Each structure stands twice: as C-alpha cells, then as structure tokens.
C-alpha cells in the first residue's frame, strides 16, 4: 500500500476516490514515564519516554489507517494528516486520516 502526505503520487494516475479513511489510537501515560518527566522538567530537555510513546502510537494509527484503506479495496492513501487531542487527564488520541484511492494499472 502506498501512502503519502502529498495529494498525488508521482508517476501514478488516480482513477477513483474510494473515500476518507482513518486510523486512531488512544494512549495513556505510564506512571514511570510521569515520574521521569517530572525530573526532566526540572533540568529541561527531551522527555524520551513520551517521544517513544507517541512514536509508537503514531505507528499504530498509521497501521490502522492502511488496514482501513485495504478493507475498502484501495491501492493508496493520499493527503495523510495527523491530529492529536486530549481525551482525559493522562490520555491522548492520535488520529491519522487521508483519502483512499484506486490507481491506474502500470
């Protein structure tokens, strides 16, 4: 499955729009990460535990996005975007969304 943040795929023609597809995950904080984040906030710098958590969550959201497009018979997803939102104290959602399309045969 080809997926991209661009609206087109170089060298390929889009012949049909299948529809909007999404993939999301709600991730909660881990108490160990919170403790380390508290220490890190004193001295400053990157909070690697949170970076890793959000990277993993983004990967899950993309996998779900691709699975949704595949279920609809799409060949590719264009115009992928990401959003985040706080669901509740200590939990946030990462959502990936885009347009599933069919491509002309090569």
Structural notes for this entry:
- This protein has 106 residues and is an alpha+beta fold.
- Helices cover 35% and strands 41% of the residues.
- A four-stranded mixed sheet has the order 1-3-4-2.
Question: How is this fold's topology laid out?
Answer:
Layout: E1 2-3, E2 14-28, H1 31-43, H2 48-71, E3 76-88, E4 91-103
Parallel strand pairs: 1-3
Antiparallel strand pairs: 2-4, 3-4
Give a short overview.
By secondary structure, the chain is an alpha+beta fold. 35% of the residues lie in helices and 41% in strands.
Low-confidence stretches: none
Distance between the termini: 15 Å
Characterize the biggest β-sheet: 4 strands, mixed
| Beta-strand share of residues | 35-45%
Question: Helix content range of the residues, please?
Answer: 25-40%
**SSE series:** EEHHEE
Q: How would you describe this structure in keywords?
A:
106 residues; alpha+beta; 4-stranded mixed β-sheet; 2 helices; 4 strands; 41% strand
């Amino acid at each position: 499955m080809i997926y991209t943040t661009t609206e087109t795929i170089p060298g390929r023609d889009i012949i049909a729009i299948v529809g909007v597809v999404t993939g999301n995950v709600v991730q909660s904080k881990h108490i160990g990460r919170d403790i380390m984040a508290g220490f890190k906030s004193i001295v400053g710098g990157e909070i690697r535990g949170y970076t890793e958590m959000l990277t993993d969550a983004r990967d899950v959201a993309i996998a779900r996005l691709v699975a949704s497009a595949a279920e609809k018979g799409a060949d590719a997803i264009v115009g992928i975007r990401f959003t985040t939102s706080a669901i509740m104290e200590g939990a946030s959602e990462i959502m990936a969304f885009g347009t599933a399309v069919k491509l002309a045969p090569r």
